[in-house]
Each structure stands twice: as structure tokens, then as C-alpha cells.
């Protein structure tokens, strides 16, 4: 890229015409700091204002454009304090329409009788006359029409930045760079995949001349975004596999004996996934594998088998989990399975005393301890291993890339296993975890009863409260999850604090009610959860802090308030806190939402308990944007690609990425130089892992 265009792209938005210091701050709120950020701030939608209609042919309820001449002075009325209404009559050769604005005092000075304008807005029919409220308007003699008579972009915006201001600023930015942008994609790739040129594409993604121009532009920009993503991830994967030698664990005869000694039989899916792990561990390459399985599919036993293999091969293993209570539960179950096989298991958490910690740390360092199960405490500087061979992280989405890397660096290129109970569509997993091989446990152990799920509204509350009381009288326990910690003036939703206070005083005053949320100190959270696990609390009111991990087989009822405020994947995770024991479990979704998406979510939850089906639907309903906390993975956000809608483009981009790296592993050829620079820039969070650096 030549220096001149590069310096323009890196220029601060504050220097653009019409921006300045104060408006630049508003753009910063949208993540826009430079000219390049601005021209890649893509529209979220478009309005077709290109077809002008005659007034007589306007229809009630439609949003459209029409041309007319101002036929009256602007009238002003004040029906009540704080409300001013401004009206003006507009005519063409076919009829009349009234335009109305509310509290927009400047309108009095805008229009003069006889002037011709184009208007765009939603039409409503009042008796025999037409009205349009708060329409967009442009004077006909202004030359090029910028906000009407064309396909107009609608951008992600923020308070005090109107659509017209954003459009105008982006137009100014494009004028600075148009015709001078160099294409990072080689002519060969553009020709093979029928991709339009970059200057044309950026112009037509913002201000398309036609539907075809828009389609061509979007296809090109989506392809480029997904290609960069795939190149970055494939380079990380190749780096991890190719540049360092891993541990080659030996085959072990004891593995079958251990499996035969278990009090249950492994499912076919568990057996298949462990075989994939075993092959990875016995390979000389560093294993980096994601194991994903639905809630209750039995990922833990697969992790135990991998730990056994590591220890019996002469190495130490570690398992990192997000909370202390989960660490304690894992320690209890894993120690119970491994101690009979001569394996020493220890627990390391932040709340242990200094004396306890010192002794454990010494035993880890000397190799006395074989397996360490812990929380973030495992990545502290004073944790040193003798021969760390296997690193496992559970509920991977709770840990960032750096945390995973810090733990791995405590050994000499240990094998890495990451586990998640957040089912992710396989195609999406390839993007999120492109640096990992993927194993899926797609089968539940036999005998698990599906959780019965019901949608409810406020009118059913008394009946549901009777049901809760009945279950508690049978000895069961209940979760009630709320979207907010405390009551809010701006959000109309149930808060955990208010709900807990209310039910403890009224509906369930004779039962033991507990409260847990993110603002409670970790130590107190753990003691509340312990009390619930031990059965000392009948009803636990919570926010989503209980979404992951804790296993309370006696809890059989999950009530979710304002279920419309949660995504499908999150609802499924919350539901997975029940149904973990022998008793039939239930999930009740209070839905206050009126939208089609909200109704669709509730239907999906009632129809299936399959997390993978739910994740596909969640991706479809949510569309583009930041999904599954990608920043935490060190993966750049997608600005234009929609992973549900653009799956076919993704496949082509993956194919192109494989081909490019096959012919130019380090992107050193002249045709790939700019591509390499862009990949490095996009993956700056993970540059140290990119093998081409």
C-alpha cells in the first residue's frame, strides 16, 4: 500500500469535514477512530427510497418516497405543555398530504410555499386524507439527492449521531480514498472467485447504485473478511503443529482396565472422542483439541481418561475450571476415580490458606502431585510443575486465549484439551476454534429424562408457585433466575434482589430462600452455593452466575424470569442446571416478549433438549455481530459477514485459504504481501502465535 493512501486511512476521524473533537468522541463510542474504521463501518440495513410515488397512489402503512410542492405555511399548535406540533400541506398533480413533526421547532423556518421537495416516511390514512409523520426530506434543486431518491444505508449508531451525519461523514471519507485503495486480494483469487475490485466494493456497500451492485460489493467484502479470519487461524494452527515438537505419549494397556472398572459403560460417542484424544496424545505433534458436548453428555470422564494416560506415561496433568465450587466438585469426583490407581490428585484455589497453598505448590513442583485441579489460581507465577504434559480447561468460553497460553507455558509444549458445554454449530466452531481440532460428544448417557419445558405468563404465576411448593414438599430444590441484579429505572425486567426479597416475605415465607449474583464477593458466593448443594436452601434466586458448572442433582425446577431477554444458547445452559439426577425435572420460561423472535425462541426451547439444534437456531435468530464472546478468544469481530447466512461464502473462503497457504506457506510472495500485513493487523492480539511472523 503506498504511503500516501496509508497515511489517509490512519488519519483520525476528527480531521474529517464536519467532525471535530466533540463529534469524534461520539464516533469513538462506535469503535471508529480512523478513516479506515469509518469506511469499514458497514450499514446494518438499507432503505430503498429510489421509487417515487404519486400522492394519490400512497397506501396506508407503507414506507415510501414521494415528491411534492409545499402548498401552505407551516402551522404550529400546542395541545399541551411540552408538546409542539408542526404541520405543512404538500401537493402534487394527483392529490394532497399533510406532513407532521413533533417538537422540531426549526421546521417553521425550513419550508417556503412553492418549493419542491422529496419526502420519505411512513404513510397513514386519516379518514379521507393522508399524513406522514417526521419524514426525511430533501429539496429538489440541491443537485445530487443524498438521503432520498436512492438506496440509502442505515448504520449502527449512537446517541447524538444521526443517520444523516454518519452518511455525510462516510461520504466525505470515501471521497478522500476512492480510486486509490490497493487491493489486498491477488487478481488470481479475484478472478477465480468472481470478486469485485475493492474501490467499487466499498463505494457500493455504502451507496449502492443498484441491487446488483450491492450484492457484488457485499459478496466481495464478506469473502475478504472470512478469508482473513481463516488465514489467521490456519497459521496459528500450523504454528502450533509444525514449529514445535510435542510429547509423544505411549500406548497404555491399563486404559482398558480402567474403563472396565468404571461403574457405568461409556457411550459410543465418549469412546469415539477418547480414541481421537488418544491418537492426538500419541502423535509427536502438540495436541490442541476442543471437546464439545451438551450438558450432561459426560465430558468429565473423557478428561479423566486423558489425565490417566498422561500420568501413567510419566507426566503431570492439570484441569482449570472457572469457579471454586466447580473445582471442588471435580476434585471430589476425579480423586474418587483415580486414587485407587495410585494417582495423587490435589485441589488449588484462591481461598486456600497460605500454609495449604505452600505445601501444595511444593508438591506440584517436586512432582509428588500428579494431577492438579483448580481455578485461575493455576496461572499464578508461583505455580511451577515438574513435568506438565496435559493441560485441560473446562468451560473454555470463560477463559481467554492468554489464560490458556499461560497455563500451557508452565510445561514443555504440553498437549491441550479444551472442553465446553456450550454447543456450537460445527461450522462456527471451525471459526471460533480454528486453531483446534474438534471432537463432539453428540450422545447423552442412557436413562437421562428430558427436561419438560413450558412457556408461562404472569397470569399463571399462582399456579406455578403452587407447583414449586409441591416440589419442595417432595424434598426437591428450585432455581429462579432473573436477568438483573437490582431494579432498574430504564429496563423493565425482574431483578434477583427484588424477587428474593418479595418471595421470602410473601409467597414462600416459610421456605429457605437464598440469593446469589455477580456483585456478591466470591467467598460469599461459594458459601451460598455450598449451602444449596448441601440442601440448606430450598429456592435459590440468582442471575446467570449459575449458568455454568454447578451440579445439584436434587434441584429439579428451573424458573427463568423475563426469558425473552436471554439468547437461546443461554436459556439452554440455564436449563441444564436441572435434570442432573434421578427425578423428573422442569423448566418454566416466563415470557414477557411480544416479538416474533421471542415467540420463536420459546417454541424452540419447548420442542427440543438438543443443544446442537438449539445452537443452530440461535445463530439463525441472532444473525451477525459478536458471537460467543469472540474478543475473549482473541479473534477479530466480524463487521459484515453473517455466519448463518454466509455459510457458502465461508466454504469458498476456507478453500481459498488452504490453496493460498499450500502455495505460499508464509505469505512471502509479492501477490500476498498486503494479505499478510492485513492478517497480522487483524490478529494483533495473537501475533505471537502466528507462524508467519
Gist of the model:
The chain contains 22 helices and 23 strands.
Explain the overall architecture.
The chain is an alpha/beta fold. Among the domains are: about 100 residues, OB fold (Dihydrolipoamide Acetyltransferase, E2P) (Beta Barrel), CATH 2.40.50; about 150 residues, P-loop containing nucleotide triphosphate hydrolases (Rossmann fold), CATH 3.40.50; about 160 residues, 3-Layer(aba) Sandwich (Rossmann fold). About 35% of the residues lie in helices and about 20% in strands. The chain has 22 helices and 23 strands. A seven-stranded parallel sheet has the order 13-14-12-15-16-11-17, sandwiched between helices. β7 and β8 form a beta hairpin. α9 packs parallel to α10. It starts with a helix and ends in an 11-residue tail after the last helix. About 0% of the residues have low confidence.
Layout: helices, strands, pairs:
Elements: H1 3-9, H2 20-29, H3 35-39, E1 45-48, E2 52-53, E3 63-70, E4 75-80, E5 83-92, E6 95-102, E7 116-126, E8 129-133, E9 136-139, E10 151-154, H4 163-177, H5 187-192, H6 198-206, H7 211-242, H8 254-261, H9 268-282, E11 288-293, H10 299-312, E12 316-320, H11 324-338, E13 345-348, H12 354-366, E14 371-374, E15 388-394, H13 401-408, E16 415-420, H14 426-432, E17 437-441, E18 452-456, H15 461-473, E19 477-481, H16 496-505, E20 513-516, H17 522-533, E21 539-542, E22 555-560, H18 568-575, E23 586-590, H19 596-607, H20 611-622, H21 647-663, H22 673-682
Parallel strand pairs: 2-3, 6-8, 11-16, 11-17, 12-14, 12-15, 13-14, 15-16, 18-23, 19-21, 19-22, 20-21, 22-23
Antiparallel strand pairs: 1-10, 3-5, 3-7, 4-5, 5-6, 7-8, 7-9
Helix pairs in contact: 4-6, 6-7, 7-21, 7-22, 9-10, 10-11, 19-20
Amino acid at each position: 500500500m503506498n504511503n500516501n493512501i496509508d497515511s489517509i486511512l490512519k488519519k483520525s476521524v476528527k480531521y474529517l469535514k464536519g467532525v471535530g473533537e466533540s463529534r469524534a468522541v461520539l464516533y469513538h463510542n462506535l469503535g471508529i477512530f480512523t478513516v479506515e474504521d469509518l469506511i469499514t463501518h458497514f450499514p446494518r440495513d438499507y432503505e430503498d427510497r429510489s421509487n417515487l410515488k404519486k400522492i394519490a397512489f400512497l397506501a396506508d402503512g407503507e414506507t415510501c418516497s414521494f415528491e411534492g410542492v409545499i402548498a401552505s405555511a407551516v402551522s404550529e399548535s400546542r395541545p399541551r405543555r411540552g408538546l409542539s406540533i408542526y404541520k405543512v400541506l404538500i401537493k402534487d398533480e394527483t392529490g394532497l398530504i399533510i406532513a407532521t413533526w413533533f417538537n422540531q421547532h426549526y421546521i417553521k423556518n425550513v419550508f417556503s410555499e412553492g418549493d419542491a421537495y422529496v419526502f420519505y416516511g411512513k404513510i397513514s390514512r386519516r379518514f379521507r386524507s393522508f399524513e406522514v409523520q417526521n419524514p426525511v426530506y430533501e429539496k429538489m434543486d440541491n443537485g445530487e439527492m443524498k438521503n432520498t431518491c436512492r438506496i440509502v444505508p442505515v448504520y449502527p449508531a449512537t446517541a447524538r449521531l444521526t443517520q444523516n451525519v454518519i452518511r455525510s461523514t462516510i461520504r466525505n471519507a470515501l471521497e478522500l480514498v476512492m480510486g486509490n485503495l490497493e487491493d489486498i486480494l491477488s487478481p488470481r483469487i479475484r478472478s477465480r472467485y468472481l470478486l469485485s475490485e475493492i474501490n467499487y466494493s466499498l463505494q457500493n456497500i455504502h451507496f449502492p447504485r443498484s441491487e446488483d451492485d450491492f450484492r457484488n460489493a457485499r459478496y466481495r467484502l464478506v469473502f475478504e473478511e472470512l478469508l482473513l479470519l481463516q488465514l489467521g487461524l490456519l497459521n496459528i494452527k500450523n504454528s502450533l503443529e509444525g514449529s514445535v515438537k510435542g510429547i509423544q505419549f505411549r500406548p497404555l494397556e491399563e486404559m482398558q482396565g480402567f474403563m472396565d472398572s468404571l461403574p457405568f459403560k461409556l457411550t459410543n460417542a465418549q469412546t469415539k472422542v477418547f480414541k481421537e484424544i488418544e491418537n492426538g496424545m500419541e502423535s509427536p505433534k502438540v495436541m490442541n483439541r476442543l471437546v464439545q458436548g451438551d450438558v450432561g453428555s459426560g465430558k468429565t470422564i473423557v478428561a479423566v481418561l486423558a489425565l490417566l494416560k498422561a500420568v501413567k506415561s510419566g507426566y503431570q496433568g492439570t484441569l482449570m475450571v472457572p469457579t471454586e465450587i466447580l473445582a471442588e466438585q471435580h476434585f471430589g469426583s476425579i480423586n474418587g476415580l483415580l486414587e485407587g490407581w495410585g494417582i495423587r490428585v490435589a485441589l488449588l484455589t484462591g481461598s486456600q490458606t497460605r500454609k495449604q497453598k505452600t505445601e501444595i505448590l511444593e508438591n506440584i513442583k517436586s512432582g509428588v502431585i500428579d494431577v492438579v485441579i483448580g481455578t485461575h489460581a493455576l496461572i499464578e507465577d508461583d505455580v511451577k510443575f515438574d513435568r506438565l504434559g496435559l493441560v485441560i480447561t473446562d468451560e473454555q468460553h470463560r477463559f481467554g486465549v492468554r489464560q490458556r497460553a499461560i497455563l500451557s507455558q508452565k510445561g514443555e509444549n504440553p498437549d491441550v484439551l479444551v472442553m465446553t458445554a456450550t454447543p456450537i454449530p460445527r461450522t462456527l466452531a471451525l471459526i471460533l476454534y480454528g486453531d483446534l481440532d474438534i471432537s463432539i460428544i453428540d450422545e447423552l448417557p442412557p436413562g437421562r429424562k428430558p427436561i419438560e419445558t413450558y412457556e408461562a405468563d404472569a397470569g399463571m404465576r399462582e399456579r406455578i408457585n403452587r407447583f414449586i411448593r409441591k416440589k419442595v414438599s417432595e424434598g426437591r430444590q428450585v432455581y429462579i433466575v432473573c436477568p438483573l441484579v437490582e431494579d432498574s429505572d430504564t429496563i423493565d425486567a425482574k431483578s434477583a434482589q427484588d424477587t428474593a426479597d418479595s418471595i421470602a416475605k410473601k409467597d414462600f415465607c416459610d421456605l429457605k430462600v437464598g440469593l446469589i449474583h455477580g456483585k456478591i464477593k466470591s467467598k460469599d458466593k461459594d458459601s451460598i452455593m455450598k449451602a444449596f448443594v448441601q440442601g440448606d436452601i430450598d429456592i435459590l434466586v440468582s442471575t446467570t452466575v449459575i449458568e455454568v458448572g454447578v451440579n445439584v442433582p436434587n434441584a429439579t425446577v428451573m424458573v427463568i424470569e423475563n426469558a425473552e431477554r436471554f439468547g437461546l444458547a443461554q436459556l439452554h445452559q440455564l436449563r441444564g442446571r436441572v435434570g442432573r439426577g434421578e427425578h423428573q425435572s422442569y423448566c418454566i420460561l416466563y415470557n414477557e416478549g411480544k416479538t416474533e423472535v421471542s415467540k420463536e425462541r420459546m417454541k424452540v426451547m419447548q420442542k427440543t433438549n438438543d443443544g446442537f439444534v438449539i445452537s443452530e437456531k440461535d445463530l439463525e435468530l441472532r444473525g451477525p455481530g459478536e458471537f460467543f464472546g469472540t474478543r475473549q478468544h482473541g479473534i477479530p469481530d466480524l463487521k459484515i459477514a453473517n455466519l448463518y447466512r454466509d455459510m457458502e461464502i465461508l466454504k469458498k473462503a476456507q478453500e481459498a485459504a488452504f490453496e493460498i497457504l499450500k502455495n505460499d506457506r508464509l505469505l512471502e510472495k509479492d501477490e500476498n504481501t498486503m494479505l499478510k500485513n492485513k492478517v497480522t493487523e487483524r490478529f494483533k492480539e495473537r501475533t505471537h502465535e502466528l507462524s508467519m511472523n
